């Protein structure tokens, strides 16, 4: 009798374990089995530990489904690889939420959600809208002459640094013997353009070192996080046992300086706020005025203020330079493309002034190169993870409320159905037979879409055009003996794709 009971019990355990590992809720997309504690994380790592978005795409092919699901720890996550499905994830209001990742909570001294990136619901909507309304007047929606002048001054400073060489000791770290260090060299210049918007304050070249901590901690955060939140997000208690290995220590080394920098700024502006400048208010003035109206229910409180500043500065300080460097990596190995951009610059702009936004329409090839660069070097290959805010469906699969869902920009940008030869850097794909830019051919979405569309898109596209054309007007990229050429298709993926610091050789153009 006993052997039968033991055998029956044993069988039951095996069946239940099998079901637990392999069975999915009804209407759920297929995906790898799960294991205790880590879920399907190990399968993802085994498939491609360096690039989880590539691992997810591979699993999608293996399970022959454009939507797959996998467990990260105990949480079931969906990843969508079909172009229409991706657009739906990005644009539908049912997917506008964000999961409360431990990585995002860690940024706050009291482990709270604040800011824009990782926030959702009423507070996120109010805060995002407030920012957008202000940014619109600063070249983030429409043209704004004064701001364009500021960008032009920053580009001129960058060009001077490369042409004349370092003038201050801190610049010797990023420019040496006609070589510059990307992405670090760009960080103070792009941060300055955004600080003009935020604080109406910029750091002159002589004081760029004051931005070092911000840039270093921004890059550390980008590199130490991962698209899916790292092991720390799945089993946060791991930090107590392996604070170094789990990345907890490095992330705190990134979070604390970021938080302190903006906390000090916010406190300074609140303390020195005297009169509201009706004529020319800064973002700080406007926000402080809202703080005084006691609108905590809409998120107008000090913490949110600090994190808004952090969340908008991080992409300008780290994301933008990373994207620009990845485009330069492609240009480094495509000298013919550079030559064609330079021909366009020489004929439209000449060399007596820097390129301006008015030139942009007349430079379709350059514009096509930048679009191609942002497609092939996707800054956020998994976008930022969304969350279903209600029970809904995607491509026929059930999506329960609170399911994290990824609209893979990598899959969209590398879809053979859309691009034929997605791994080729081929700007011509965006041009018609006459060489005119053909926007209808651009199916890429490097800035996302819909309610979560990147609020910095116009600014980033404008700044990218002005900086890259300003550079190529003044320098030639070179590959010298001993230079390491990185494979641009294999850059490091943290929360964004960001290359390790690398040197680019150049010579000055006459
Ligand atoms: C080339 C540069 C950039 C690229 C490719 C880029 C791309 C993106 C993408 C894909 C998202 C996520 C959209 C989603 O969740 O579906 C995003 C979000 C965001 N971006 Fe950008 N971005 C860039 C530069 C900037 C800049 C310069 C700023 C600010 C000045 C900025 C501010 C933001 C903010 C605040 C969000 C969060 C929006 C939200 O969750 O509501 N970005 N960006």
CATH superfamily: Cytochrome P450
Which oligomeric form is depicted? single chain
**Helix percentage:** 40-55%
Largest sheet: 4 strands, mixed
User: In the CATH hierarchy, what is the architecture at level 2?
Assistant: Orthogonal Bundle
Tally of strands: 10
Q: Mean of the pLDDT scores?
A: 93
Bound molecules: protoporphyrin IX containing FE
Strand order of the largest sheet: 1-2-8-5
N-C termini distance: 95 Å
Low-confidence stretches: none
CATH topology: Cytochrome p450
Approximate strand percentage: 5-15%
Query: Radius of gyration from the CA trace?
Result: 24 Å
Number of helices: 20
Can you put this structure into words, describing what you see?
With 510 residues, the protein is of the alpha+beta class. It has a single domain (2-508), classed as Cytochrome P450 (Cytochrome p450), CATH 1.10.630. It is built from 20 helices and 10 strands. The chain has helices at residues 2-22, 41-48, 52-62, 83-91, 102-105, 121-140, 145-164, 187-199, 212-224, 230-234, 238-241, 248-271, 283-291, 302-332, 335-348, 357-360, 364-376, 409-413, 416-419, 457-474; strands at residues 67-72, 75-80, 175-176, 179-182, 386-387, 392-394, 397-399, 404-407, 475-478, 502-508. The strands form 3 sheets. Strands 1-2-8-5 form a 4-stranded mixed β-sheet. Strands 3-4-10-9 form a 4-stranded antiparallel β-sheet. Helix 7 (145-164) packs parallel to helix 20 (457-474) and helix 8 runs antiparallel to helix 14. The chain is globular. Bound molecules: protoporphyrin IX containing FE. Protoporphyrin IX containing FE binds at residues 90, 116-117, 128, 194, 311-312, 315-316, 319-320, 323, 374, 379-380, 383-384, 446-448, 452, 454-456, 459-460.
